[in-house]
Amino acid sequence: MSTQLFALGMNHQSAPLALRERVVFAAERLQAALADLVRAKPVTEAAIISTCNRTEIYGASNQPGAALEWLADYHQMEAQELKPYVYSLPQNEAVRHAFRVASGLDSMVLGEPQILGQMKDAVRAAHSAGTLGTTLNRLFQHSFAVAKDVRSNTRIGANVVSMAAAAVKLAGRIFSSMNEQKILFIGAGEMIELCATHFAAQHPRAVAFANRTLERAEALAPRFNARALLLRELPEVLPDYDIVVSCTASSLPIIGKGMMERAIRARRHRPVFMVDLAVPRDIEREVGTMDDVFLYCIDDLAELVREGKDERQSAVVQAEAIIETQVDSFLHWMRGRERVPLIRQLRESGEAARRAELDRALRALARGDDPKTVLDHLSHSLTNKLLHAPTQALNLGDREGDEGGEALSRAVAHLYHLRADDQ
Q1: What's the chain look like in SS3?
Q2: Nearest-CA neighbor of 320 among 175, 150, 89?
Q3: What pTM, to 2 d.p., does this model score?
Q4: What is the per-residue pLDDT across 105-130, written as a single tens digit (0 to 9) for each?
Q5: For the domain 163-306, what is the CATH superfamily, name and number?
Q6: Which class would CATH give 4-159?
Q7: Can you give the residue ranges of every domain in the chain?
Q8: Disulfide check for 89: which of 93, 256, 298, 401 has CB 3.0–4.6 Å away?
Q9: Catalytic choice (52, 195, 247, 297)
Q10: How many CA atoms lie within 13 A of 255 on its CB side?
């Protein structure tokens, strides 16, 4: 069986958040995971995209199904537990899926550009891990080119409603005005920066950033006239804030129910609006059952971000057409690449025949044989050697009378530019 591209994973459409957060790959462990995948299973190339909305393995293998077993083993789960929620895409579908993901057609927010940066991060991680081979690298580079084409020639990215904008809209349902509200952002990454930009436009009373390292928080704070805090200060400062937005890469919850219960008592039960954009979650789900707490996770924002989708839906048909053309182009490259070893063997066989006949001719000339006779013999012998294999195959096909013989005859006629009526 030849090596084939495949994609295997789960996303916001196929699996609930509770399951997605169990198969997240921490950024600092991604390279080690990739090395383990290639070492432990018959996967020759691999890249992993792990975001809040998806975990996907792209690879090259002659046994794609082995990736599911590895994924389950790595996260200490049973394959049967994951199987109902996982999509496994063979080569053609995997290529199409990669192009759609890069173009923002498979995102919770239709047309959002953030996934493109996340795919590029995945490529860099695979390159550093030594698992990004020629085929996967070509797939991703082609994906990036397709995404650029889609964004340049369609309106797929017009009026994108981001998670950050949706969070502001939800907060507006709890608080009639942001002017008197104090906002705490937990984390200091790209998503938090985007959220802070949207909330800052509402002119909140005060803003703070809490992060594991103070340097990252201090880098953001001046832009928003905000305070910088360490995560360990959360129990003391949490009661001061009316809105909490969290998005970190922590593998464990940062805010538990006990911490939040103490904060609510200190606030004298004034309501708190909380948005957890992290996967795995930063805020224990039990916090959402508390009175006076309005907790929304990333899946809860899905309906809001779909508003405005109709305006971009007309661009989807155009984007899909671009993608389909590019899928054909990439698969043509794949088919050509698969034939390279055969072409190499064919040329090596012809070169071996040429060298053998040339050596024989040189020996004849050294003996003093007539040059014209030597050249005539050389040309006949070389022609006979090069045509022996196709001639033998045609004769064998005729004797056996099989259907393959007719197909072989047509192939030979095509290869040597022969007319059918001359056969």
Answers
A1: CCCEEEEEEEECCCCCHHHHHHHCCCHHHHHHHHHHHHHHCCEEEEEEEECCCEEEEEEEECCCCHHHHHHHHHCCCCHHHHHHHCEEECHHHHHHHHHHHHCCCCCCCCCCCHHHHHHHHHHHHHHHHCCCCHHHHHHHHHHHHHHHHHHHHCCCCCCCCCHHHHHHHHHHHHCCCCCCCEEEEECCCHHHHHHHHHHHCCCCCEEEEEECCHHHHHHHHHHHCCEEEEHHHHHHHHHHCCEEEECCCCCCCCECHHHHHHHHHHCCCCCEEEEECCCCCCECHHHHHCCCEEEEEHHHHHHHHHCCHHHHHHHHHHHHHHHHHHHHHHHHHHHHHHHHHHHHHHHHHHHHHHHHHHHHHHHHHHCCCCHHHHHHHHHHHHHHHHHHHHHHHHHHHHHHCCHHHHHHHHHHHHHCCCCHHHC
A2: 150
A3: 0.72
A4: 998 878 888 889 899 999 999 999 99
A5: NAD(P)-binding Rossmann-like Domain (3.40.50.720)
A6: alpha beta
A7: 4-159, 163-306, 359-422
A8: 93
A9: 52
A10: 36
Q: How far apart are the first and last CA of the chain?
A: 36
Least Cα distance to 148 among 103, 108, 82 occurs for 103
User: Which residue's structure tokens are 């979650």?
Assistant: 281
Nearby residues of 12 by Cβ (< 8 Å), 6 or more positions away: 20, 53, 54, 108, 299, 302
- What digits encode the pLDDT tens for the residues 323-347? 999 999 999 888 887 777 777 888 8
